[in-house]
Design a protein that fits this description.
Oligomer: single chain
Shape: rod-shaped
Structural class: mainly alpha
Helix content: over 70%
Order of helices and strands: HHHH
Largest sheet: none
Number of helices: 4
Number of strands: 0
Number of domains: 1
Length: 112
Amino acid sequence: MTLATRKHARLEDPGAELLDRMLLHWNRYGKIVLGVVVGLAVVGGGVFLALRSRAQTETQAAGRLAEANIMFWSGYYQQSLDRSKHASPATTTTGSGTSRARWPSTGATSTR
């Protein structure tokens, strides 16, 4: 009951069997799993950076259009049109760029 029994009891440990199976699978598929995890991390990082860049561009375009709106209602029609055109080129796919697309492309005139 001394050495032989302890050794036999240790081999029957279910945790050791599970660990052996996990190591066997890791040795077979470890590189594939690491590749997939790294690939997902790279894609996730790229999506995060793209969304953050788009949000920053949208914020800048919204600010430019707000300035153009204030200028328009203050009576500075040509400056307002110029500001709205400057907000347009890089933001045609954003909400503010779409809003700018509704503005007239010709000079606005006063109706006062």
